[in-house]
Every structure is written in structure tokens, then in C-alpha cells.
Amino acid sequence: MNRLGDATSPYLLQHADNPVDWWPWGEEAFGEARKRGVPVLLSVGYSSCHWCHVMAHESFEDEATAGYLNEHFVAVKVDREERPDVDAVYMEAVQAATGQGGWPMTVFLTPEGEPFYFGTYFPPRPQHGMPAFMEVLQGVVAAWRDRRAEVGEVAARITRELGERTGAFAAAAGPVGPAELGAALGGLTRGYDAEHGGFGGAPKFPAAMTLEFLLRHHARTGDERALQMARDTCEAMARGGIYDQLAGGFARYSVDRTWTVPHFEKMLYDNALLTRVYAHLWRATGSDLARRVALETADFLIAELGTPEGGFASALDADSDDGTGRHVEGAYYVWTPPQLVAELGPADGEFAAGYFGVTQEGTFEEGSSVLQLPQGNGVVDADRVASVRERLLTARGRRPRPGRDDKVVAAWNGLAIAALAETGAYFDRPDLVQAAVDAADLLVRVHLDDRGRLLRTSRDGAAGRNAGVLEDYGDVAEGFLALASVTGEGVWLDVAGLLLDSVLHHFTAADGSFYDTADDAETLIRRPQDPTDNATPSGWTAAAGALLSYAAHTGSDQHREAAERALGVVGALADKAPRFIGWGLAVAEAALDGPREVAVVGATADPLTAELHRTALLGSAPGAVVAVGEEGSAEFPLLADRPTRAGLATAYVCRHFVCDAPTSDPRALSAQLRSQQWSGPRGS
């Protein structure tokens, strides 16, 4: 066993018995390279990455390749989900040098950590214009031996150029107004796939953060184009193969523009973000489909990704044993017509094939099909569909299951907390709210150290050693703020404030921009900084959103001003790249609307208090915050000096702590929260 045997990352543990003498990332590995005078091979991947598994099997499990690696390199293996900072810095170098990126990421470094040669997946033999991995290794060894000075010059130049990019976004400034958000909508409209929903072509990703912006934009402006794009995209995804038609939950992306065939890995962050989007779509439209998908995906999170400690695992693999000993992508999920008949009998097997779009030719590989819900199914027997789904799910459960990456990532658990808290509140599912509370308890108990700082990951209830990055602070604070609004427990507001203090003190530059790592984090060849959203909200936009919500709860000018400064970059990118700043656009919608602050004051046991609280949570005003508590409670600043009226539970809708007329009528409260033009202050 190599040096990965003590790792907490399932991805690193998958490589612990490789013949490659892997080192974890750290000064010890680079010290070894300096001592031996050899370059470092940095290999970055993650547990559910299909091509990472392929390269591992082809090259890292091969004795001859491993022997050559061990002789000429110090090999370092990194889980990008544990060390997103390391991944970001070197991926930027890969993309700058090659014009593309991906995982596994393969980078050759000097013993000082400076990169000089780059790639992603390399096959064991030359193919499709790619050199064999052994050829790459031999070429690097020859260059290191014969042209060491030239290699050093290249590495120094690349490192210098990367360093010059730090602060590149600092100059972006200015408020984000209706014009910028309208321009973003125009850009999204131009890139919208009107036939199949979504944005762009293949591969097509479920743009959850962009969809949230569209829903918020519609709520603020009433623009039907925004709602139509969000609604049609959500329906297309829910009917497609990207959505698990038996157990709920979304795959990472679709390989085609029709949402038919997914890349089958299932990520916590996608499903948390999409649960929230579908719940918000239901809130805006009352769609039965949105309600079903939100609840099914929430149930998937708990059933498939829940951990015994109360948190949520990171991912399910795309690959699994197909029953013949082959490890095949999608094997757990796909069906053929004969398999349906074998499980359901001829009549129901034929019915299921038609209902789920399973054809003789197949929509995937080797005649198999991914289950879908094609348009035009017409009226069907709901009981029959439920019976078929249940029997197929039971049959699928007998297949070898995909592997699970069971490390708990703070940021993604924060996203899950927000989604489950809100979904549970909307649909009267206290079990979902409790699951959110349990995950929040785990983060406080295990991930929060004695300095009030976050640790990035844990596994089996034991914290990892890697420091939290900006997205951890922003997303966890977002989750805690949502939980505070749903539960009425002010402690979650307090802990969110503690995390946001760290953002202000350790991640914020003098000009108001954000770094992705703290000022006391490990020094890399450059300090990563990126405001653009990818599969999840960037740390920058996540922090901006949490700061804005916290300011709405507390009236803190410091937090409000920090959020507004951070949002300057959103205006700069809104019309140029709206798909890559989706969460920033959603936060900007909240800032432009207020966001509205709703205080519900009344006795805890009073049904009217509960009805007003639920009405407040169901209001679609962008980014609205909600506080509920007894009259005179000090649990939330929003409740201060807010009396009940005429002995009845009372709700106040405010902006910047200036309130509209208080009401004890849930219908009037709902109307206030729907209003796109604020009627102005009429009391306090």
C-alpha cells in the first residue's frame, strides 16, 4: 500500500493499492522531489469521474507504467473535491496551455510546484491524435534530463503569467440595475433551445442557477419569457433520461441536446440545487410536475446520499457491474424490452416500454434504453404506472449498485440544507426539515473548528484536514439562513453571521473582491479567484448572496455594502456570459427587489402565526428573508419593536427595515409579497 492508505477521500483510497507510489498533496511530496531531483506528476480527479477510473485501470494499475513513474517522478494524487484550490490553479494553467480542460487532469511540475507540461486523459496506446501515456512520461523525462534550464524557464513564465491574473476581476464595479439584468435575459433568450429546453447544444447541463435567476426575474418584473424558459426547461429535463424516472434525482448532464442520454453520475450539488429550483417553480406556478420532481429529488437525497452521521455524501458513480463482471457506464439504470417483460410480464412489459420510451433499437448502447417520459403518453392508469415503477425499482435494486463517494463536503451540504428546509416547509414534510437540521448539526459539530473556521470535508463523522474555501462559507451560510427562516431558530442566523465574519476578514480584498482561499491558507503558485459559476455557485456569488440575506435579517450596513461591492462583477458579465454568472444574477435580482424582509409575530401555538409564516415562505419575492417568533422575542433582529395588532398574529413586510402596513390577513400578506412594485413605507 502506498501513502494514500490514511486518506479520508474515497477517490484517494481507490488508488491506495496501486503499484504507483502515490503521495498526497503536501510539502513532503515536493521535498522528496527536490531531494531526488525529479519532476512531480500531479494527477487530479474525483471518485465519480468515469475517465479517471479508465486511466487508473489502464495506466496506474499497470506494473510497467508504475515502475517507470516511480523511478522518474514523485507522483501526487489529489481529489479535486477536497482541494478545489489546487484543482482551480492548475486547471487554469491546463486551459490556458491547451484550450481545454477536464478530468483526470495530468500536470507535470517542478519541485517548486511550477507547471511546465499539461494534459487530461492519456491512453495507454496512441489513439485519436493523443500520445500514449508512456510516451508522454518518456518525453517529459527526456526534457527534464536534457533541457532542464529550458523547462525551468517555461515553468517560471507560466507561473508568472498565472500570478498576473490575480485581481483581474477587481476593477469590475458599479451597481447592477434593471438594464444589466434585462441584458442578461436577452443573452439567455438568444442561447435558449426553444425545441428541447435548456441553453446551448450538446453536452447540455441542468443550469439550476440560471433557472433560479429566471424565476426571480419573473417574480420581480412579471416577464413571461423568463418564466416560460424556466418552466419548459424544467419539464423537458423531468421527462428526459437525465432524470431518474424510477427513484428521482438528476444525472450530471446530458450528452445530447434532447436530455435523452445522461452522463450517469449523480452529484449532491446538482440535486440540491435542482430540488430548490423545482420547489420554487411550484411556488410560482402550482405545477404538479414541479411538485413531484421536487419531492422525489428530496427523497433521493435522503435515501441515496444520506449518511449515518446526518450529512449527505458527495456522489454516486456513473459506472457499475453489468452483471457479467464488466464495469459499464449506466449499467444500473438502462433497460431493454426483454428485461422489462422478464420483470413485469408481457402485458405490463409492453406497457412500460411504451410509457418509458424503451425501444428495440435502444437509445443508449447495445440496444439498451434510458427511461424517459416522452410527450404524448396521454391519459394513463396512474395505479398501473405506480405498480410498474415500484416493481422495476425493486428489480433494479437487485443489480450491482454504483459506488458512492461518501465524503461530506461542507459547501454541498449547505446547498442541501437550503433545499430540504424550503421543500419541507412548502409541502408540509417535517421529515425533510429535520434532515436539513441534522445536516446543519453535523456541520457545526464536525466541520466547525475551535476558531469558528470551516473544514472542507468529513467522512464517517471525522473531519478532514483541509481548510474550507470561500464556497464552503457562502453555501453553508446560505443553508443556515434558509433554515433560520423555516424553523424560526435564531441560532442558525448567529452561526451564519460567524461564518460571514470570516468571509469579511479572511477572504475579502481591499477593493471588495473575493479570493477563493483565506489569507492564512496554504500558499499556492497563485491565490485562486474566480467569480464565475460552474456546476455550483462560485464562492464569490455564494458569499454575496449570503451577505445580502444576512444584511436583510440584521440591518447590517457592513454586510450589505460588501454584497453590493461583490455584485459589481455581475454587471460586467451579465450581457457577455449570463450562463456563467447565474447565481450572481439571482442575487442581483434579490438586491434590486430589496430583498424584502418579512417578520411574523405571534404565539407559537397560534394557527394564525403558522399560516402567516407559511404564507411568507411561499412568497416569491426574490431572496426574501423571513423571521418568525413571539412578540418581544430577541431571536431575530427583524422581530424587534414589532407588536401584534389587536391581539392577533401580525406580519410585517419591509425593505431596509422600513415596513409596509402590517397585516393579520394571509391573503393580504400574499398580495404584498406578489407585488412587483413596492407601495412604499406606510408605517413601522
List the helices and strands and how they pair.
Blueprint: H1 10-14, E1 22-24, H2 27-36, E2 40-45, H3 50-60, H4 63-72, E3 74-79, H5 84-98, E4 105-109, E5 115-119, H6 133-146, H7 148-164, H8 178-190, H9 208-221, H10 224-239, E6 253-254, E7 262-263, E8 266-267, H11 268-285, H12 288-305, E9 315-316, E10 319-321, E11 327-329, H13 337-344, H14 346-356, H15 382-396, E12 404-405, E13 408-409, H16 410-426, H17 430-447, E14 457-459, E15 462-463, H18 470-487, H19 491-507, H20 539-554, H21 557-566, H22 568-573, H23 582-593, E16 597-601, H24 607-617, E17 625-629, E18 650-655, E19 658-659, H25 666-674
Parallel strand pairs: 1-3, 2-3, 16-17
Antiparallel strand pairs: 2-4, 4-5, 6-7, 8-9, 9-12, 10-11, 13-14, 14-15, 16-18, 18-19
Summed up, what is this model?
The chain has 684 residues and is of the alpha+beta class.
Task: Characterise the protein shown here.
The protein has 25 helices and 19 strands. The strands form 6 sheets. The chain has a 5-stranded mixed sheet with strand order 1-3-2-4-5, sandwiched between helices. A 4-stranded mixed sheet has the order 17-16-18-19, sandwiched between helices. The protein has 684 residues and is α+β, with helices and mostly antiparallel strands. The chain is globular. Strand 6 and strand 7 form a beta hairpin.
